[in-house]
Amino acid sequence: MSEAVTTQAAGATIGDSEFDRDTAVTERAPGVYDTELSAGWTIINAVNGGYLLAVLGRALAHALPHPDPFTISAHYLTASRPGPAVVRTEVARTGRTLSTGQASLFQYDEDGREVERIRVLATYGDLDALPDDVRTAAKPPAIPPMEQCFGPQDGPAPVPGSSAITDRLMLKLDPATLGWALGSPSGKGEMRAWFGLADGRDHDPLSLLLAVDALPPTAFELGVKGWVPTVELTVHVRCRPAPGPLRVSTTTRNFAGGFLEEDAEVWDSADRLVAQSRQLARVKLG
Amino acid sequence: MSEAVTTQAAGATIGDSEFDRDTAVTERAPGVYDTELSAGWTIINAVNGGYLLAVLGRALAHALPHPDPFTISAHYLTASRPGPAVVRTEVARTGRTLSTGQASLFQYDEDGREVERIRVLATYGDLDALPDDVRTAAKPPAIPPMEQCFGPQDGPAPVPGSSAITDRLMLKLDPATLGWALGSPSGKGEMRAWFGLADGRDHDPLSLLLAVDALPPTAFELGVKGWVPTVELTVHVRCRPAPGPLRVSTTTRNFAGGFLEEDAEVWDSADRLVAQSRQLARVKLG
Fold first, then answer.
1. Entry's SUPFAM superfamilies (chains A, B) (predicted)?
2. Domains of chain B, residue spans
3. Is A75's CB within 8 Å of B121's CB?
4. Theoretical Cys-Cys bridge with B87: which of A192, A256, B33, B237, CB 3.0 to 4.6 Å?
């Protein structure tokens, strides 16, 4: 993995990076947090759902007695926009090894009234307190070396529709899952990529919440051209990721009735399956 | 499929069956529902998590303007017991095609105080209003005909630990995933079964919430002997199931750090993938 690691830019660290600054929350009152949604994590005009989940995840990490999201379920209610927002948290239960809480992100309408954007239920624990037994049966995705993969920066728009978020990500897609960008989708509903943050920040549980929702929709490889907004996204974080880039693999197996599921697996540089997610998304044909 | 269908007992119907009576809720005040958790859906002394989810799902179907759970995420806080319970619901957002709500199930401690058992976020819609396009890439599980599969009723305890719930289910396990019951688990983390209700009631979206959590834990096929309590369970219901028994397949790919995920797929007699679920469970070795 050392080759791959050295291709990342150096500099930013966990706690001192664009991602940390753009997901920062400030407690205004007990359990109530002010935040500013950055325009830097948008695709077209939509704020990325994984970035939003990381903001909520950070507020819950402060509100709950345990530091890490073990499982976090988000239902997306209305479309978020860059700008001020408030996160209201509530503790449901605190236990010795796990605690459960709830959080909602609100923005403001023209009359200054709060509009709820996302509601989240999450159970937190301490990843560092887990036993280190690993009996993972899944295998890391087969993906070519990073220098044989392609991102938005490579050449004249092999990945169309680039947006602000592409400047903040190190995203290198497996050419085998890039057919959609060249007009010939594979029909397979699979996407694979190397994933990092452009400023070289390593990963932590919060950036894993971003990683699961940062690839182009698998629906593109099914020939869908349109918008695939997330209805619900649940992420399991299973291990603190090792330094270095991640490999993310996404699949869709059930595209029917105008909806589809999308599963993501996130593998770290030590070949650990560090996060799994599933979302239900709606297919809005363009 | 006609052979399989005719092996089910006849009589009960959707709306008039044990499952319907045992998941019934009575509105006491706007959005607040009384219910009685039945001892009939317990395994050892634990109330089945899918049955509990169906009770919450029924309350939300009443509280929300849409009838069917499209995606429902449950976080399990404390262990439920048979007996009285109250479900408190809250509407988060209502839209034209989807609405989102929240529900909590409470029971009472020795002093009569409410103790929260489960908290749920769910987005509901109308399955009958969906377009009928199906581009499902997944294939139904390969499972032998029902008469070659085994349930708790077959012979001298091929499936140990039978409990009240086994009398209410028609559960026939694929012999290839029954090694654990014979002392030689496959090591594969897979379980497959035919699934129905013992009184012959056909399936609806609420009984699919039961179906995803009714098989023995896949962990048994990994050689785990112990308790595998659910931390969080999310179910996507994708289609109203056709009459007749279901095929349920469950898999575990990431058993590590004392936790595992378990994915379920539920197929109906018309070969439609009608529900998908994923849960995070904790492994408590016996």
1. Thioesterase/thiol ester dehydrase-isomerase
2. 2-128+141-285
3. yes
4. B33
Q: Specify the residue for token string 């560090």.
A: A274
Q: What is the ipTM of this complex?
A: 0.94
Under DSSP, the state recorded for B210 is: H
Q: Which CATH number fits domain B2-128+141-285: 3.30.70.3180, 3.40.50.1370, 3.40.462.20, 2.40.160.210?
A: 2.40.160.210
C-beta atoms of A138 and B261 within 8 A: no
A125-172 confidence digits (pLDDT tens): 999 999 999 999 999 999 999 999 998 777 655 455 557 898 999 999
* Distance (Å, whole) CA B260 – CA B282: 6
Q: How far apart are CA A52 and CA A72, in angstroms?
A: 12
Residue among A270, A285, A271 at smallest CA distance from A228:
A285
Helix (H) or strand (E) holding A168, with range, is: helix A164-168
Of A130, A163, A159, residue with least CA distance to A238: A130
Report DSSP state, residue A241. P
- In chain B, what percentage of residues exceed pLDDT 70? 93
Mean pLDDT for all residues in chain B: 92
Distances (CA, A) of B12 to A281, B41, B48, B151, B284: 35, 17, 21, 21, 37
Look up residue B51 and give its amino acid. Y
Radius of gyration of chain A (CA): 18
Residue type, B91: V
A9-127+145-285 under CATH 2.40.160.210, yes or no: yes
Which chain B residues contact residue A236 at CB under 8 A?
261, 278, 280
For residue A38, name the pLDDT band (cuts at 50, 70, 90): very high
CA distance A61 to A81: 23
